[in-house]
Design brief:
Layout lengths: L2 H4 L22 H6 L10 E7 L6 H9 L7 E7 L5 H7 L3 E5 L6 H11 L4 E4 L4 E3 L3 H10 L4 E3 L2 E5 L1 H13 L11 E3 H7 L10 H11 L4 E3 L4 E5 L4 H11 L3 H7 L3 H5 L2 H11 L6 H14 L2
Parallel strand pairs: 1-2, 1-4, 2-3, 6-9, 7-10
Antiparallel strand pairs: 4-8, 5-10, 6-8
Helix pairs in contact: 7-14
Length: 299
């Protein structure tokens, strides 16, 4: 059963599972000899996951990380003072747990902390409500071996109701817009050269880092293997509240990237992206709904 198949009953599950799972945490030597020890070019991957009270979605992500055809060197869970079972789940499933005292929204801090204390030559940043298809790391390794500095994974949003359909369509529509996507995997030296995630930017610190990579001329590749983003609990109200909160950092982004920000925040450029993303007449209402959401963010 794929993540998409499970989306319809997500509200009834507390521990999502991948049907292709072949064991979580350190595997047997025989399994490792078949998959995990095949390291193209000597590359090692560290998967870094910032968390806070994410016991409901974290198991599926860790399972998908350990189930990669190209096994990661480590799964690093950076916990910001969770009060649920998140830390226990991370440790039980073989992840390396890093804890810190959280005082608010510190995803950039958590990601930087995980990167600094990780060991891999390639860093992979994913959120706790995501799952990786089994080919993600091996395709990323091939792209990096071919000369890429960073790699974008296509994301598929899994939601419920109207907001779920809208978010899913918008994610697909912007998938080819390099300024609106994020290279979740990158060489360690590239991450360090770019300065990591900006702790003063909330919500879109990922596309801020993407803009820095572009401005500095790093080579960004895109692979076919997907990641799934679980947004089954997202509502229209919570979505708009989150977007407005994130918009507080837009001034800093504009100041850092005066040229690129003209495209990112231009209504006309965004409309062009959406129009390009329409594959059939049936999708026009979804594009209209996305435009309405964008307008509501400004209210």
């Amino acid at each position: 059963m794929s993540p998409r198949d499970r989306a319809s009953n997500a509200s009834h599950r507390s521990k999502p599972h991948l049907e292709s799972h072949s064991g979580c945490g350190p595997e047997s030597a025989s399994t490792n000899s078949q998959r995990g020890n095949q390291q193209p070019g000597g590359l090692t991957f560290s998967i870094i996951i910032p968390v806070k009270n994410n016991a409901g979605t974290l198991p599926a992500l860790i399972e998908s990380a350990w189930s990669q055809l190209f096994r990661p060197a480590e799964v690093v869970v950076v916990d910001g003072s969770s009060i649920d079972e998140t830390p226990k789940i991370a440790s039980k499933m073989g992840a390396r747990l890093i804890r810190y005292e959280s005082v608010g929204d510190e995803r950039s801090y958590a990601r930087n902390l995980g990167a600094n204390q990780s060991t891999g030559s390639v860093l992979v940043f994913v959120d706790s409500d995501m799952e990786l298809s089994s080919e993600v790391l091996i395709e990323a390794a091939k792209a990096i071996e071919a000369g890429a500095d960073a790699v974008v994974f296509p994301e598929v949003n899994l939601g419920q109701g109207l907001i779920g359909k809208i978010r899913s369509w918008e994610r697909r529509a912007v998938s080819d817009a390099v300024l609106l996507t994020f290279a979740r995997a990158m060489r360690r030296e590239v991450f360090q050269s770019a300065g990591g995630f900006d702790k003063e930017i909330l919500g879109f610190e990922d596309i801020d880092l993407q803009a820095t990579l572009i401005e500095r001329g790093f080579r960004i590749a895109r692979i076919g293997a997907k990641i799934w983003h679980h947004e089954e609990q997202l509502t229209m109200v919570s979505y708009l509240a989150k977007r407005r909160y994130y918009s507080l950092s837009s001034t800093r982004y504009r100041d850092k990237h005066p040229v690129l920000s003209k495209s990112v925040f231009s209504p006309f450029e965004r409309l062009k992206v959406y129009v390009h993303g329409v594959h059939s007449v049936k999708e026009l209402p979804l594009m209209g709904a996305v435009l309405c959401l964008r307008a509501l963010e400004l209210v």
